[in-house]
Specification:
This protein folds into two domains: about 80 residues, no CATH class; about 190 residues, Hypothetical protein af1432 (Orthogonal Bundle). Helices cover about 65% and strands about 0% of the residues. The protein has 13 helices and two strands, in the order ααααααααβααααβα. Strands 1-2 form a two-stranded parallel ribbon. Helix 1 packs across helix 4 and helix 7 crosses helix 8. The protein is globular. It starts with a helix and ends with a helix.
């Protein structure tokens, strides 16, 4: 509850660091995470950050948003022995997409770097929700899609989503938007999380943000964090332009280091 409240408030245009600090101090787990991230190599502080006041000042609102989003992702994932491996894979993939989307946005949409990190981090959170609903069936879906990918025999996205809706009552993408709405995330961020395999057509701020997430998805396998949950699903009608070679190289060269710096700090 505290993590989703923190994310909601941090995404508000009226967010204030003092208000965020008070929420963080109400949750020992968030306090520990905030201090770990503020002291991580990612922020490169010369002196140890020992107080929440100082940590929040170092992180800024964008940094607090990322920590809150990571905590929300953690709380959505099941922790049973059967789902441990798949939950860990979802965490790795989500962090990879968050970091990659941030790097892409820093070149193509500099005012959206913080938003791109959160959108990349949360774009597949609906998969965690489906695992909570029925982990056994969701694991079976994932294994079937991986087998199709290895056989280079893609499954039709519409048919896969229809079966998800029949089994779980909702699709993975719809459940992501459900959570975004439940947490009262801004409309532009919720829109960027809609990824149904079709081209992004929204105008304005949503389009570059959604494209950053889609490009980060396309790079995830190259960075060692593939999307097992949609592997083997045939993607319809994408008209995304290719990511330029120079920016592609920059993401590949930079993202792994940033992921290593943040993985332990953002852990529960």
């Amino acid at each position: 509850m505290t993590a989703s409240q923190l994310l909601t408030i941090a995404c508000s245009p009226e967010a204030e660091l003092g208000q965020l600090r008070r929420l963080i101090e109400a949750d020992p787990g968030l306090m520990l995470r905030v201090l770990r991230v503020a002291n991580s190599a990612f922020y490169g502080q010369a002196r140890k950050v020992g107080s929440i006041d100082r940590a929040v000042a170092v992180l800024g609102i964008d940094g607090v948003r990322v920590i809150a989003a990571a905590a929300c992702l953690d709380h959505t994932l099941p922790r049973t022995p059967a789902t441990r491996e798949l939950s860990a894979a979802l965490q790795r993939h989500s962090l990879c997409c968050g970091v990659s989307a941030r790097i892409i946005a820093s070149s193509l949409a500099p005012t959206l770097t913080g938003e791109a990190f959160i959108a990349g981090l949360l774009h597949d959170i609906g998969c965690g929700l489906l695992m909570l609903v029925d982990s056994e069936r969701f694991i079976a879906f994932t294994q079937r899609r991986l087998a199709a990918a290895r056989a280079q025999s893609p499954l039709d996205t519409d048919a896969e989503l229809k079966e998800e809706r029949q089994v779980f009552g909702i699709t993975q993408w719809d459940s992501t938007i459900l959570l975004a709405n439940q947490w009262k995330l801004p409309e532009w961020l919720a829109a960027s999380l809609t990824r149904d395999g079709r081209a992004v057509t929204d105008a304005g701020v949503r389009q570059p943000l959604a494209h950053c997430v889609r490009w980060s998805e396309s790079l995830a396998a190259e960075l060692g964090c593939p999307n097992d949950f949609q592997a083997g699903m045939l993607v319809h009608g994408s008209t995304d332009t290719p990511l330029g070679a120079a920016l592609h190289r920059q993401v590949v060269e930079t993202a792994r280091g940033e992921m290593d710096e943040l993985r332990t700090a953002l852990a529960p």
